[in-house]
Amino acid sequence: MKLRIITLSLCLFVFSFIAEAQNRKVALKSPLDGQNLVPALTTFTWDTTETPVDSLELQLSRSMTFNDTLNSWILAGTDTTYTLSTALDLDSTYFWRVISFDSAAFYVETSNVFSFTVIGPVPGRPTNVSPMSASVDVSIYPTLTWTSVANTDEYHVHVSTYDNFSDTAYYGVVADPTVSVNVNVKLESYKVYFWRVGAKNINGLGEWSNFWNFTTLVTSLTTPQANFGMVAYPNPVQNKLILNFEGQGTESRISLLDAQGKEVQLVMNEFVSDGNQTVEISRNGLSAGLYFVKVEQNGMSQTLKVVFE
Question: How many domains does the chain have?
Fold first, then answer.
């Protein structure tokens, strides 16, 4: 009978010890498991809310099994963070864990093992050079140039018809040290485009350059031709022109061209609904002479001759 009681008491003690040890398992927080870190003095953090122990040991290794522990630090049981005093090696993967001890320095519990990789920084931000922002009469096969950025392997060039780059008219990649690209796809004539450049290396793509815009060269006044029911008055014009046309439920671009077909004013470039539309066009100091109002919708256009007195 006494043997049974002793055996039962021993089992209860072991069970209680195991349960307490499980409750003392430190929860690792950062660096996150599998995280990529740029070079810096790495800070480790963990949660000891459920770990009422007297001391902790932070271990760092290049091996998941910790058979080559690089270093370890004995810390108070209430500590929840530790920052290294020296930077770690680039392009290296490390493993870390925290072991908790009781007041007698008896082994209690080891946390899960987290890994992280130290990577170099991504390149800086390029600066657009040409064509300058708001340039007009730019070729439909433009050449885009920008400044070089250190520690770059390649440049990514993005051209879009929207300033949020929600579509792509052209996307190209050129190797460093090249800092220009000839757009090898035909852009639409007399259309506004936005462009930006990003530098990339083995560690990722850096921040995009500030976007610039340009308007491509007018190559034709009449092709392809459409009938949008355009009516403009008064004509001749003294101060302002009223334009009526039929919207097509799509993006409409309205521009003012001089007698040589060069765009001198972008009136609007936005979505319009179906049906009759009215737009007011200001003269904006334009000299007297012959001009054309051009409406573009659905890849087609219509022009109307007007005279400024």
Answer: 3
